[in-house]
Amino acid sequence: MSPTSADKDWPNYYEITLDRAPCDAVRLALDNFDREGAPDRPRLAVDLGCGGGRDAIELLRRGWAVLAIDAEPAAIEVLCAREDLPPTGELQTLVSRFEDASWPDADLVNSGFALPLVPQAKFAALWQRIVGSLKSGGRFSGQLYGDRDGWVGDPTNSFFTRDQVERLLDQLEVEHFHEEEVESKTRRGKTKRWHVFHIIARKP
Prior knowledge:
The chain has 204 residues and is α/β, with parallel strands linked by helices.
């Protein structure tokens, strides 16, 4: 999971998390697409807050075109330098805070543990953009932080009650919804309480 947004040492974080598997949410979302059969056009995924590329690599490996967006230039540098980057993958990158970014309509908008790093005041507009950019049959996959998370009170992050998350998903068909509460150590060795909603939702 991501470090707190107050932690500025992102390059080191990307390096120490290079071995992490793709998030379960994006893998399950891709499995759902696969069950629907091969499309008659290339599929596009937008990866918001791509970090070191744990999810982008999986998307490329499965034949998707990917637009990877991250506010940190170091994230894009790490992603493009990965040894496991598929040589024939169609990858585009953009350095931008994703609440300020623009992207084309997509079959999948994925955000692996990155959406919570958006300040609450900017979240509603970003969420509307995510839902609006999904093509019919497209999906969102990602995580949101709950109101019992250990970082509640950090003004640079967003936190939601279960009811609030369910209201966000009103326009979508929820395919996977798992609420997790666990205490564990971060990759930096700090103990933290996690309250996380793992989501896959499809646009009708």
